[in-house]
Write a structure and sequence with these properties.
With 106 residues, this protein is α+β, with helices and mostly antiparallel strands. It is built from four helices and five strands; from the N terminus they run H-H-E-E-E-H-H-E-E. Helices cover 35% and strands 27% of the residues. A three-stranded antiparallel β-sheet has the order 1-2-3. It has a two-stranded antiparallel sheet with strand order 4-5. Helix 2 packs across helix 3.
Length: 106
């Protein structure tokens, strides 16, 4: 389950968490489509959309494709109700994730 992966969110990135979830749920593959590039050459902003089994999901923008992909994966996890990080716990050094659908700490 994603819950086990989320416990280690400090050491894993959102793209990895999303890929692991999709694979474990046998939902196909995760790809990232470039949907926009804007800004001057020295200050590009890339916008990517996560796509699971051909279905468009979360969107993210950033100064690199890697950053935009991470934000798109995070938006997808949040949109699926799988990831909710309580920021005040992060400041205290805790790794607490909550499944919004069940509203329970894991």
């Amino acid at each position: 389950h994603i819950e086990r992966a989320v416990r280690n969110v400090n050491t894993k990135d959102y793209k990895t968490l999303l890929q692991e979830h999709v694979q474990k749920q046998h939902q196909g593959n995760v790809t990232y489509d470039l949907i926009d590039t804007s800004g001057p050459d020295h200050q590009r902003v890339f916008t990517l959309q996560a796509v699971i089994a051909g279905e468009p999901k979360g969107v993210g923008s950033g100064g690199s494709k890697q950053e935009a992909g991470q934000k798109a994966a995070k938006a997808t996890l949040e949109g699926l109700g799988l990831l909710y990080i309580i920021s005040r716990h992060w400041r205290r050094g805790w790794n607490i994730a909550v499944n919004k659908n069940r509203d329970q700490r894991i």
